[in-house]
Design a protein that fits this description.
The protein contains eleven helices and eleven strands. The radius of gyration is 21 Å and the shape is elongated. It has two domains: 3-66, Helicase, Ruva Protein, domain 3 (Orthogonal Bundle); 77-285, Vaccinia Virus protein VP39 (Rossmann fold). The chain is of the alpha/beta class and 286 residues long.
């Protein structure tokens, strides 16, 4: 069987299982199996595929057909132009989370050696991206999943910033309470769980059935963890320091009200993603 015939058959199967971008996934998965890039694949469509590669390819197509995310099959995802290892222990980094990184870089653009805390670090994509951009930054990253922290540490080593990030196990700010950071932090970045429990069943199978629930679901309202971050962050932020947090659709008003009610913040900025959804809030400590 030729490569083009193999791809056509796989794409038809994925389409029958309602996989979005079925042909693209079929091509990427064959690149993964063969250890080649898309340009090579395009130039060798009439080549025959060997039996061993074909069997391996059929197995990965089986996985994608049951809606396992492409990134968990290949074990990787790009974020901020950097490679990241991903497994079912961590949320797959999304493009919209890059707005958190952008806002954090803007917030410390005039700071020589910023101190940064990344809570709910997951794969470490935010902390690692910031450490890669800010050579003099002191970065702390926390997560309540030991498995996620293991992946984050691997990613830090792969991206050569492991010596500049301290990964800490625990819920939100609990791991940094004993450190001398109160009132000294320039940026607190967060991509916390923000999906209400009642919305879980309606999520895409790739998300609902494969990504870690503890990284998705915040509670009945979806704002529980974000609220805790808003309330606890001021103790660590320096005057003028920024809390930069990703949020879900429709959560702006609720979080803005909570921020104002604390009396600890002086300004609130809302950043929209490329789809026009209010995605990131930036709150400066008074």
């Amino acid at each position: 069987m030729t490569i083009i015939e193999t791809i056509n058959r796989a794409a038809a199967r994925l389409s029958a299982h309602k996989v979005d971008n079925a042909r693209w996934d079929a091509e990427l998965l064959l690149c993964h199996v063969l250890g080649r890039d898309p340009a090579w694949l395009l130039a060798h469509m009439q080549d025959r595929i060997d039996e061993q590669s074909l069997r391996l390819y059929e197995r990965v197509i089986d996985r994608r057909a049951v809606r396992e995310p492409l990134q968990y099959i290949t074990g990787k995802q790009e974020f901020w132009g950097l490679p990241f290892k991903v497994t079912p222990d961590v949320l797959i980094p999304r493009p919209e989370t890059e707005f958190v990184v952008e806002a954090a870089l803007k917030a410390v653009s005039m700071t020589i050696a910023p101190v940064i805390i990344d809570v709910c670090t997951g794969s470490g994509c935010i902390a690692i991206s910031l450490a890669k951009e800010l050579l003099n930054a002191q970065v702390f990253a926390t997560d309540r999943s030991e498995q996620a922290l293991g992946i984050a540490r691997e990613n830090a080593r792969m991206n050569q910033v492991a010596d500049r990030i301290r990964f800490l196990f625990g819920d939100l700010f609990a791991p940094v309470k004993e450190l001398d950071l109160r009132g000294k932090v320039d940026v607190i970045a967060a991509n916390p769980p923000y999906i209400p429990m009642g919305d879980l069943a309606a999520l895409q199978p790739e998300v609902r059935d494969f990504e870690p629930e503890m990284a998705l679901i915040a509670g009945p309202q979806g704002t529980e963890i974000g609220t805790a971050i808003i309330e606890q962050a001021p103790a660590f932020l320096k005057k003028g320091g920024a809390l930069i947090m990703e949020m879900g659709m429709g959560q702006t008003a609720g979080f803005s009200s909570i921020i104002k009610d604390t009396g600890d913040y002086k300004t609130i900025e809302i950043i929209k993603d490329l789809a026009g959804i209010e995605r990131v809030l930036v709150a400066r400590k008074a």
